[in-house]
Amino acid sequence: MASKRLRKKIFLTTALVFAGLCFLIKWTSVGICLFCQTKSEDIFLKRDSGHFLLLPHLDCSQNPPFLVALVTSSPTQLKVRVVIRKTWGKKKIIANKLIVTYFLLGTTLNPEAQVAVINESLKYGDIIQKNFIDAYYNLTLKTMMGIEWIHKFCPQSSFVMKTDSDVFVNTYYLTELLLKRNQNTRFFTGFLKLNEHPIRQMSSKWYVSKNEYPRNTYPPFCSGTGYVFSTDVASLVYNISDNIPFVKLEDVFIGLCLAELNIKLENLNSKQTFFPEGLEFSPCRFKKIVTSHFVRPHELLIYWNALERSMDEKCPGG
Ligand SMILES: *[C@@H]1O[C@H](CO)[C@@H](O)[C@H](O)[C@H]1NC(C)=O
Ligand SMILES: *[C@@H]1O[C@H](CO)[C@@H](O)[C@H](O)[C@H]1NC(C)=O
Ligand SMILES: *[C@@H]1O[C@H](CO)[C@@H](O)[C@H](O)[C@H]1NC(C)=O
């Protein structure tokens, strides 16, 4: 028995080292080349900027998901991903519909952290990764990677959600509302921002120079903390994204694409359901929302368990 376990351990270690080597070879030979001149245009490529380094274990043509949730996350956020996998991001069937969650990651220059990501991907098979530095100002690249992945690997799904790792998502209510709404093409929803302006103070996290974005108003867009669209929109956005001037704020960039495609943003429900500012938790309140922002991992676990426990209980007002 002991030798069998040892053999298994040796096998797993070898597999991991092998995967790491494959990754390094791939990493240095495609996209940005670290050991030769860096092609500056690569940084601005929104699509087709190299191969996918890591892909989920999934064949979308078999049993296509109703909803694919894509979560922007960074290599070091393993703990958060573990909690999301146990809570709202757990693969499940709601109202006979398959709901799956994948994580969008860039790369890190720390080889140990990268090996840990490969390890995690081997274990869970839910990581989508391409070769760009994982940084806040590369969020547009990360979002476009998700859109490209849907276009190429999961066009059979019905809806896509893009959200962040500090967001609580009520996938039950989202599925219920999407089914009720039944608008399966050119649909885009979330927390609508219809009258936003670029922030020109350099100290702001959202600072955008006149050079990057000359106009004084943003197009309508949905808060990047959580938006949902019919899967056809992914292909439409992917197709035109190269013609859209690059803006590092991913939600604004998607807004520019939607304006070009003449796709209007819509509310999912008559009452507000997306909360980019966050919301105090109560099971009854959270039953009737889709997203709440600024949720820490331990809170996520508590909220989700409380929500699931109270699923069949009545709440005041229905
Ligand atoms: C790989 O994952 C296992 C758990 O699946 C963990 O115990 C191990 O420390 C990880 N190795 C690395 C290099 O992250
Ligand atoms: C975004 O990724 C590219 C490609 O890896 C890298 O050259 C660039 O420095 C990154 N941007 C930031 C702000 O880190
Ligand atoms: C892709 O975009 C081009 C314009 O850039 C348009 O002419 C073409 O019809 C689009 N194709 C699809 C499949 O949307």
Automatic annotation (TrEMBL):
Uppermost EC category: transferase
InterPro entries, per the entry: Glyco_trans_31, Nucleotide-diphossugar_trans
Recorded superkingdom: Eukaryota
GO CC terms in record: endoplasmic reticulum; Golgi membrane
Single annotated GO MF: N-acetyl-beta-D-glucosaminide beta-(1,3)-galactosyltransferase activity
Reactions catalysed, as given in the entry: a globoside Gb4Cer (d18:1(4E)) + UDP-alpha-D-galactose = a globoside GalGb4Cer (d18:1(4E)) + UDP + H(+)
The protein's name in its UniProt record: Hexosyltransferase
Source organism per UniProt: Python bivittatus (Burmese python)
Source taxonomy: Eukaryota, Metazoa, Chordata, Craniata, Vertebrata
